[in-house]
Design brief:
about 210 residues, 16 strands, mainly beta, globular, eight-stranded mixed β-sheet, six-stranded antiparallel β-sheet
Length: about 210
């Protein structure tokens, strides 16, 4: 994302990435607070200012008033790479001491989690300026040895996909940083596995 354009990235059925470029002259920075409730018509494009990365045009969409991410690129039963993600960039946090990141999420379709067998998950990342991406630590996932691993949201089959779980994190803004990016990234084991997000909010806090 730069000051002139919004990139929408996807991979075609032939395995090649394709990019659609949309012009947005006011894309330098998003004001804080930022909020999106995804309460708009069903669409294969979730809309400005989000950037999508996907392998099929229907993998990151608006559906029934929520953002929906789905799909495994290879259907190999492994979570070896991110299948789909959506990113909001350049939220202005200059002068803020911390931010509150708020969202609500649930599973979609046939997503499932069994420790050491299937580990479908929704990962939530953030970064300030051009710092390294940080995976926010939670307490509801397992690693490959069936040990509890505080790293992500699991997507067990027992979740009701019509009931969203709200989350709120307070994150300290490092000294000298002026923007924050937030990314929701899916790792699943089947083409009908996924997650849904009901809303996203970023609230700036000052001392």
């Amino acid at each position: 994302l730069n000051s002139q354009h919004l990139w929408r990235v996807a991979m075609s059925l032939t395995g090649h990435w394709w990019i659609t470029l949309t012009h947005h002259p006011d894309c330098v920075a998003m004001s804080c607070p930022f909020s999106d409730d995804f309460n708009r018509g069903d669409n294969n494009d979730i809309g400005y200012p989000w950037v999508e990365r996907e392998r099929h045009v229907e993998d990151v969409v608006i559906a029934s008033g929520a953002a929906r991410l789905r799909d495994d690129a290879t259907d190999d039963g492994q979570q070896t790479e991110y299948e789909a993600d959506m990113t909001i960039s350049n939220i202005d946090v200059a002068g803020s001491s911390s931010i509150s990141l708020r969202y609500a999420w649930t599973k979609y379709g046939t997503a499932k989690t069994e420790p050491g067998v299937h580990d479908d998950r929704l990962n939530v990342w953030y970064r300030f300026d051009n710092d390294a991406w940080v995976l926010r630590h939670l307490v509801d996932a397992w690693d490959n040895n069936n040990n509890q691993n505080p790293s992500t949201h699991l997507l067990p089959s027992t979740l009701d996909e019509n009931v969203f779980a709200p989350e709120e994190w307070v994150i300290t803004v490092p000294p000298g940083r002026s923007t924050v990016d937030v990314r929701f990234a899916l790792r699943v084991s089947g083409s009908t596995d996924g997650a849904k997000i009901d809303y996203v909010e970023v609230i700036c806090q000052q001392d």
